[in-house]
């Protein structure tokens, strides 16, 4: 059993590492389309390696959502999102590495959880809600402006930065 967990952790680590390489690649003139596609294929292969484990995948990924290392937290959030396990993420948003969750959710389909995301945006504290607002705006979902105004005047610079990024991506800004 411990060997399986170690293999799953290796898959998560590799997803995080490869995603970091992918992020660098898409902003560099040194990479070609086929280079990025190769990274995408490798990421998908590691996701497949996690999916084979079934429920053990959840047990390995969920505790890593709060990792300080963004690449590990991203890999955990992205993996859970790909599995449709959004509720596991929602249940611990306040303990999550929110920057990792933002990146993961911005790179997956959120249509099935649009309503709960909008509820979190309306009701959560500013740190969490500003992260959710950025996710929704990235997916071109309309937001109510009252929270954005709150975030723009917030004491936390991360909340203000997310608000400005949300405005820049929002379809109704």
UniProtKB/TrEMBL annotation:
Family annotation (InterPro entries): ARM-like, ARM-type_fold
Q: What is this protein called?
A: HEAT repeat domain-containing protein
């Amino acid at each position: 059993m411990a060997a399986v967990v170690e293999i799953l952790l290796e898959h998560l680590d590799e997803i995080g590492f490869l995603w970091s390489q992918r992020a660098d690649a898409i902003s560099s003139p040194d990479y070609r389309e086929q280079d990025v596609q190769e990274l995408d294929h490798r990421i998908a292969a590691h996701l497949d390696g996690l999916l084979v484990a079934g429920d053990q995948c959840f047990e390995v990924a969920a505790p890593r959502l709060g990792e300080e290392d963004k690449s590990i937290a991203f890999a955990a959030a992205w993996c859970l999102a790909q599995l449709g396990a959004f509720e596991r993420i929602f249940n611990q948003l306040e303990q999550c590495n929110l920057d990792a969750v933002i990146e993961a959710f911005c790179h997956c389909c959120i249509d099935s959880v649009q309503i709960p995301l909008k509820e979190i945006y309306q009701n959560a504290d500013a740190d969490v809600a500003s992260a959710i607002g950025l996710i929704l705006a990235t997916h071109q979902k309309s937001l109510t402006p009252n929270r954005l105004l709150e975030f723009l005047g917030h004491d936390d610079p991360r909340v203000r930065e997310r608000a400005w990024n949300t405005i820049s991506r929002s379809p109704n800004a």
